């Protein structure tokens, strides 16, 4: 079943009232969705897809890759899921916790979640199922830093833009 954005309501829990949980509808102005596609010079056939959901009090970033060679691959692993939030005691060191670990993607996911939480000053959820093994990139540090830099710049630039 396909739902249009106008048919979907986001509900957020609010404080307890008379011992019962009360839900309030989130205003459309409070949420924003952006989908980005990035290419990297060292991987011309592989695309990085970024889904950025900005809510009133949180940021959700989902990352994945796709390439023409992946048609042969049966299913992609879920990847890592990390939550980070700004640290009130030390603004330079955001707090983070791993919600779902997948070792090959864990380090990049954690670093990205912490960076976005620190720069945006919002709690941040990052899911990452990016894989560059099919593209022959492997686990080289330089390539991973290039991917991290490209994704971080694109996401932070989009967060700085005024919502439309």
Automatic annotation (TrEMBL):
Entries under InterPro entries matching the protein: PAC4
GO terms, biological process: proteasome assembly
Alphabetized Gene3D superfamilies for the sequence: 3.30.230.100
Protein name as annotated: Proteasome assembly chaperone 3
The organism of origin for this protein: Ophiocordyceps unilateralis
């Amino acid at each position: 079943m396909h739902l249009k954005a106008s048919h979907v309501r986001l509900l957020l829990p609010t404080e307890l009232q008379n011992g019962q949980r009360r839900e309030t509808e989130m205003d459309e102005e409070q949420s924003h969705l952006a989908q980005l596609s990035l290419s990297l010079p060292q991987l011309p056939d592989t695309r990085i897809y970024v889904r950025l959901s900005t809510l009133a009090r949180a940021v959700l970033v989902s990352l994945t890759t796709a390439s023409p060679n992946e048609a042969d691959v049966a299913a992609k692993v879920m990847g890592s899921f990390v939550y980070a939030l700004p640290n009130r005691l030390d603004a330079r060191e955001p707090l983070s916790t791993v919600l779902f670990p997948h070792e090959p993607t864990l380090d990049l996911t954690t670093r990205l979640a912490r960076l976005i939480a620190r720069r945006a000053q919002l709690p941040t959820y990052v899911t990452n199922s990016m894989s560059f093994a099919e593209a022959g990139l492997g686990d080289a540090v330089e390539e991973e830093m290039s991917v991290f830099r490209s994704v971080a710049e694109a996401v932070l630039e989009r967060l700085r833009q005024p919502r439309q």
